[in-house]
Amino acid sequence: MAVTVTTSRDAVAHPLARAAREAVYAGIISFGMFVLLIGLKTDQNIRNEVILAQRWALLVGV
């Protein structure tokens, strides 16, 4: 089995930089999942029509 060694600095990232990048990715994915579950709510107005109520403050708070 051959072992390849790269000397570029891009291949060996600092652990803190890698953790920050992964945290950003996780935040984007979780925001995309929760935007439909928490950020938007179907409601009913006085004319018995379905409306879409936005709850952005609650989404940011979670």
What does this 3D model show about the protein?
The protein is of the alpha+beta class and 62 residues long. The chain has one domain (15-61). The protein is 50% helix and 16% strand. It contains two helices and two strands, in the order αββα. β1 (40-44) and β2 form a beta hairpin. The mean pLDDT is 83.
Shape: rod-shaped
Arithmetic mean pLDDT: 83
Strand content: 15-25%
Tally of DSSP helical segments: 2
Largest sheet: 2 strands, antiparallel
Integer count of domains: 1
Largest beta sheet: what is the strand line-up?
Answer: 1-2
- How much helix is in the residues? 40-55%
Quick overview:
By secondary structure, the chain is an alpha+beta fold.
Keywords for this structure?
2 strands, 50% helix
Topology:
Blueprint (H helix, E strand, L loop, with lengths): L14 H25 E5 L5 E5 L1 H6 L1
Antiparallel strand pairs: 1-2
